[in-house]
């Protein structure tokens, strides 16, 4: 996914979860923070942040001209736009369906090729980020599938963790994936780690042990648990390489 009109700035403060004050171009601007999570380990006064400027803000009725979309942590650029993982995951699935991966042993979804990829699908009392069909490369059999996407910005000692705050909604999604799998759907949860340099992914059992417990139950029930890092530049984010999922 791609951004336009990118500028850098210095983070000053975050009066509430929706806005931040940032110094850029020798002035202080008010930015919309595209992540309502805590992000306390990222948004520290003095760090360099990445903003997307919207030159048509006034005409389009926006309250701010800037979105805060990225931050540098110890020299590592982390995308913190909570909408980016869904877009990047959709582009990634489309690339899989287009035959980007030709070696079966390296194919992210094993013998399956996704097609008819759709965003935002309701099943029962759940609304999943992606719905698609899977065609078996060997048998040509077709199966319906759902995927829930979770963006990850929390990193500690080389490990990516989710969530950074308790998430009842996240548990509901996992339980919905379990039910969908029981009804004959292939079910996936994809953790999109919005940075590089990650050694592994693990649920944040300290912050929200119930999410970790439910994630493990989902895996045991047949839900596929995937984690991928991203190539992050100031103006782009692309799903890149698989990251080891550590649930044991």
Automatic annotation (TrEMBL):
It comes from [Clostridium] clostridioforme 90A6. Residues 12-79 form the SfsA N-terminal OB domain. NCBIfam families: sfsA. Residues 116-235 form the Sugar fermentation stimulation protein C-terminal domain. Belongs to the SfsA family. The gene is sfsA. Pfam families: SfsA, SfsA_N. GO terms for molecular function: DNA binding. The lineage of its organism: Bacteria, Bacillati, Bacillota, Clostridia, Lachnospirales. Gene3D superfamilies: 2.40.50.580, 3.40.1350.60. InterPro entries: SfsA, SfsA_C, SfsA_N. This is Sugar fermentation stimulation protein homolog.
């Amino acid at each position: 996914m791609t951004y336009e009109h990118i500028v850098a700035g210095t983070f000053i403060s975050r009066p509430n979860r929706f806005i931040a004050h940032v110094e850029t171009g020798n002035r202080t601007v008010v930015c919309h923070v595209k992540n309502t999570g805590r992000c306390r380990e990222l948004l520290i006064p003095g760090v360099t942040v990445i903003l997307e400027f919207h030159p048509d803000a006034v005409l389009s009725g926006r309250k701010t001209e800037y979105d805060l979309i990225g931050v540098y942590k110890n020299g590592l650029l982390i995308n913190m736009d909570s909408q980016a993982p869904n877009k990047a995951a959709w582009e990634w699935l489309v690339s899989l369906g287009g035959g980007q991966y030709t070696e079966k042993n390296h194919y992210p979804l094993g013998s399956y090729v996704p097609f008819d990829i759709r965003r935002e699908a309701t099943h029962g009392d759940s609304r999943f980020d992606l719905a698609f069909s899977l065609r078996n490369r060997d048998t040509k059999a077709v199966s319906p599938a759902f995927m829930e996407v979770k963006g990850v910005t929390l990193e500690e000692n080389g490990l990516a963790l989710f969530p950074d705050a308790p998430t009842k909604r996240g548990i509901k999604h996992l339980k919905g994936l379990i039910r969908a799998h029981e009804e004959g759907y292939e079910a996936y949860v994809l953790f999109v780690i919005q940075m590089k340099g990650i050694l592994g992914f693990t649920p944040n059992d300290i912050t929200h042990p119930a999410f970790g417990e439910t994630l493990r139950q989902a895996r045991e029930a047949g839900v596929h648990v995937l984690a991928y890092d991203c190539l992050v530049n100031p103006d782009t984010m692309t799903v890149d390489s698989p990251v080891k999922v550590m649930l044991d």
